Amino acid sequence: MKIRVPIPIESGRAVIVAAALSAVAMSISSCQETYYAGQNVTRESYPDFGAVVLLERRSHTFKVALELVRTYHYEITGRTEIEEFRRIKILTEEGLERYGDFVSSIYNKEYHQYSVEASVISPAGKRRTVGGDEIRRVSVGRSYFQYRIAIPGLEVGSVIEISEKVKSNVPILSGNWDFAEEVPTIESELVFKVPEDTKVMFSTIPKGEIGKVEPVKEGRYHVYRFRRENIPPYKKEKYMPPRHIGNPTLYYYVRRMSNETIAGVLDVEPRFIGGEPYVMTWRKVGEYYARYFNPETWQEDEKAEEYRSECEWLIEAFQGEQGGDTEETLEHLVRWFHDQFQSIDDEYLYASKNPEESYTLREGGPFELAYVLHSFLRKLGMRSYIVLLRDVTDGIVNRKTPTYNAFTHPIIVVGHGRDEFWIDPFNPYCRLNQLSWKCQGIESMWLLPSNDYVFKKIPYDRPELNSIENVEEITIDEEGNIAGVSRITMTGQYLLGLRRRALENGEAGSLEKELASFLERMFPEVFDEGSLEIVKEGNDSLEVTYRYEMPGFTEISGSYMNVDLSHWIASSLHDLFEGEKREHDIRFPYLKSEKSRVKVKLPVNVTIKEMPLGRNIEDDYIGYELDVLDEEGTVIISRDLIFRQSTVPAEKYTAVKEKAQRIYEIDRVTMVLERASL
Amino acid sequence: MNRRLALYSCLLFLAAIGSCRRQSFEFLSMDDIDAYELTEAQEDAHTVILLNEERVEITGEREAYWERRIVKKVLESGHPDEGVFAIPENRFAKIISIEARALYPDGTEKILAPGDIETFSSFRDYVLYSDATSRIFRFSGVRPETVLEVHVRKRITNLLYCPPAVFQDELPILERRYRLIHPEDVKVQVHGVNMTETPGTIIEHDDGRIERVWERTAVERFEHKPHMPPREAVVPALWLTVAEGQKLGVELDLSSWEGLGYWYSELSRPSLTPGSRVRDIVARSGVSSMPPKAAAEYLYHEVRSRLRYVSIILGLSGYRPHTAEETLENLYGDCKDQSVVLVSALREAGIPAHLVLVRTADRGRFENPFPHPGYFNHAITAARIGKRVIYLDPTCETCSFGVLPYSVQGADAFVVREGERRLTRLPVGRFRENAYDVASVISVQGSGTAVVRDTITLDGFHASRFRYTYRNRKGTSVEDLAKRLFFDEMPFSAIDSVAIEGLDAESEGVRIVLAYTIPGFLEDRSIVFVNPLLHRLHYPVPQDREYRYPYHLGAGFVSRCLVTLVVAEGRGATGFPDSLSIDNPYFSYTGGWERKGGGFEFTRCFRLEDGIVPVDGIDGVRDAFMAVREFEGAKICFAKEE
Asked: Model pTM?
């Protein structure tokens, strides 16, 4: 099979289609039916919502047909028809704003035929069909289009009906259906129609939320119908894992279609059906990607020779500069590669047909750049593996539903002796052995040299590797003026975040600017940009320093002087715990740690009237320790905070929040001094 | 892009570039490129513009050819977007040709082929219905030392679509040149914005054509910083107008504001004619029997709540509003459509009303504005009630009667009526004050827990903004929203109740009553210093650095605060700062702490004037704001009484 794009059956862009499409197997009901259907849905019955979805239905049909290619020569073709119908009642002005304009998903000009009809039924029951300038097709990319509809005559109490039909000449064999919306849904249905005896698989989030259904025979097809009623809106929460959006969600896909099944649908003898039966397994996915990353796959391209000579030239250019051991060579290679090759993330403007073209274009998407770097490593004689993963922001890989478009982002692991070196070819702010938080704590598929694959979970960096540490030395005089010097060290995701933002900004001194802005947020009262100096910028850590002098910094009341020590404590804890309770788990982007070591030299002739106490809080999620020592006129504060788990289950939220609240209170640590001589 | 941004692009579109008649074109030679020497500052940029050259040749009263050559050199990796070019066009400014080349550091070059160019909607990212398109192409493999050169020619068939020549960019420019050529008998006026309109060179050609040339070299990059004026208000630019013989739907005389007023009056006149739908609204409501203010208020809310914002800009409808009847049939329209309905209904009810063209504050105003349709980007309504003019923006879904959105308050505007000869400055909080008032009662219990009851009263744009945030909270609970908006300083406070009145724009203002407790407000120690103000004044203070541009304080408002704190017996508060009073041209502040029993009472009145602080006044304003910050941030000593 000639592979043209990374995803052969559900094209990469079909993810978008599959995720957002729905369909109408039904004919649009009569206006009167619609009118009465929504009569009980009123603002009084749904006071908190601008609209209610009365009905959402998708019909996803996979059809098999014989197509005459040449005289007497037929080929079996698979096509997909997806119809989606949506009926929404508007209850308030907010509902008008939210649902008054319909924007379709984005479709491929080559693969998809799309049509849409819309109508609006007034509160009095009068239907108006939408047409003319109100429905516009818009080109949104090199091969992509979208439809937009301004629904006219819409008022509070109106009902909108949108009916979409998509015919795809590449089979779409999987999809997912969200039963919940941002507003309540009265009825939601998914109909999945496949040739009789096709083996299909379903899985749901949350698990077990949608029961098992048996197929109903309809001609030579089997129809699976999933229906739910009165579905509350899904709740959006801060740090909510994306897989919860639209829940309950049903994932469905075709697992196996035998030649007998196809023969049955086509009404021919099974012996006339040649080739392998269609089976969707992770093995097939693995084989597909193994082919993609195999240079032999691309040999037939007419420009193959040109591309490869460019590759040779580039390797020579790199080899001319390199030196040192494996780690040094790889460090150098990663930085050189990111300098030479640009990451392109506009999938609508950029589409590659052959990853080797990236040798000459010097740019590519995640798959092309992984291909190129993988080739380089092989030519340099290094053993490397492709590791496929799905960025955590794109949702999780559902192990129960193998699909070609499960992965969005390949990375590379280089094995050398017992060492493993990790490389992200696409994110230029990641150097050797650095992965963005989006690539951590998730399932990944390793493509093995034996054309095999294995699933492994990419571990999180230990929290100590994502750290911010500030070491402060402060002197206070009798008038309450302070002078201090701060040394701050950042590692892991703190550093990657700075580098990413600096790259996006792109101007000279961007790193310093991003750094200043970050420190201003962390230490608003004492940070002084004017004296900021980068002491050391290593591969894995950044050390900076700044000085400050602040007259009248402490509060004075009578003989008392208040020193607020919290100004020297970096804390990012409290913004994670906004609500009183949670419906979904919290998922922090990454594990991290914070350290503060603060020495405060007190003026002579003062006594400590109120001194903070040392505290220790430990549980499975958070570790916290505060130590305060008085050493002959110098108070030393040590504070450590560590996030041990990336996920806080919803049921543990209240308990963890209580701990966080306690830490927040302890962090507001102050010290009261009494001046003797006033 | 969000809808609010889309809203203000509704009125007028000018194509960003134009065209020229010459057909032959040569890319710069390597020697030409090598001749450009970069300064140290230019070398720090990720990309520089070596040359940005425009040439406009006006061939008649309504025709011009425009061309632009832009040559960019990429200096750093990680900027593939520099290889992407989007060139807008529309029916009055058609692209004749595009030639482009990428010259790579290894000496290879890529010449743009026709198949490399795609045509996309100019509004790819949000729902705006327009026939404006952009030709988009991109060069692959853009890396350091790549030189990109693009040459575009357009034919302009309406001189109003001749774009302004901008002399500064987000990238440094080594050489910027603008040539204007026109027949002697075509009276072309050039308006300098932040630069002189006097050209560096004037050439009188033998055939009677006049050529004027403006040149600048080593133009430093424009960097937008928070609180500086909008880009268009500060970058140097030249605008062209040909006063006579212009037509945009109807005749347009740009020699005076009166001419502009006449043009828009004529263009919108057919749209304003009331039909059965307008008459029906007026008749149904019985406004004819109401006092004029009540009638205007009723009609404003009727239009605001019934019509939703949709912009359909096809052909001339970027300027010409749809008729009031069409808009009422569709129940949607853009700013000018909605204002046409409102003006039409008000007039039908016997209330004098006019359309008003607006340049929203986020575009910034010119020092010496000149009549040009492109100066405006929004439309609202002016209604005369007795001797008073009330400005109304029906596109603002959350604005009370007489309240203008934040970005419209204080903006330049032009009232479309016969004989109008000048621009108007829209009022800031005049009809309803922009107010943010807080009354807070804090009772500190023996355990140190504070029980708080806040009454927050919002008016003017503060009320509209709150309503907008509330409407778009997308499933966030009211308690969580309140925390996000008002509890920045107290993330772990526990909300007992939230009551909100005035969420509907038909109300005058918004009143929020919050009851909550703050555990550990006072630690159980003999002496504790705490900042007890839970709603300190938050205002972005200018930074301690040199400013090159004025500092924008934004639309004026007033914020009053009264805090009463009562502590349980056995504790007393001391260490209050002295009263603070500040009065400068930009804001005034009075505040005071007064001990009451063991606690205190705190009062504040802050009044921000609508204004722009000139560069030499920024230090003073910063010092004044810092004094306020220190005053309100004071930690008060709560000591256990022996």
From this structure: 0.88
